[in-house]
Amino acid sequence: MREYRDDETGVYLRPMTGDDTDLIVKWRNTDAVRKNFIYQELFTRQGHEQWIKNMVETGRVVQMIICDIISDKPLGSVYIRDIDRKHNKAEYGIFIGEEGARGRGVGTAAARLMLDYCFEEEKLHRVYLRAFADNMQALRSYEKAGFVKEAHLKDDVLIDGRYCDIVLMAAVNLLK
To answer: I need a labelling partner for 67 at 20 to 30 A (CA). Which of 25, 91, 113, 156 fits?
Structure first.
């Protein structure tokens, strides 16, 4: 795998390992991260270890850690899941776990890097995502990274007793 880095933003991607489990669990259980996920249940170490065994090790998921170039400090994670080799597509996800890394372009840079990885290494044609329609910061970030809005699903998911709209976005590999 080639190195995926953005010198301007100061981040790079590295493969997630089992050693990242405690950090992933900590990040995913913070309200700031959890509130932006459709799946909002609390994470456990055991659950994440099962994720690695059943999803990552089987090739159904590729998960990377977003790191600061200067300090090597982990800042968050990006991943693709439900990798469909027949149709060459996968679903994208991201979270910025470190509060100080939010709002400064890290998410946009990581999304661009992950799309490069998906198209170059995984040879995917299409990468899609689902996001809450009211998460304007995320939607702007995804658009800057190259995702295009494809659909707006009204009352698609029930979160804390309230139906929420979901936006579907995708990026397509036009270089093939």
So the answer is: 91
- Among residues 67, 59, 53, 58, the alpha carbon closest in space to that of 13 is found at 67
- What is the pTM for the complete model shown? 0.94
**For residue 48, how far is the Cα from the chain centroid?**
16
Residue 141 near residue 45, CB atoms below 8 Å: no
CA 65 – CA 137 distance, rounded (Å): 21
Pairwise CA distance, residues 64 & 62, whole Å: 7
Q: Are 15 and 66 in contact (CB under 8 A)?
A: no
Given this structure, which CATH class describes domain 4-172? alpha beta
* Surface-to-core class of residue 107, CB atoms within 10 Å of its CB (0-12 exposed, 13-18 middle, 19+ buried): buried
Structure tokens at 4: 């995926």
Q: Alpha carbon 116 to chain centroid distance? A: 13
Lookup: tokens for 105: 């372009």
Residue 176 pLDDT > 80: no
pLDDT at 109: 98
Helix (H) or strand (E) holding 144: helix 136-145
Residue 56 DSSP class: I
Residue 171 near residue 149 (C-beta atoms within 8 A): no
Residue 17 is given by DSSP the state -
Length of the chain equals: 176
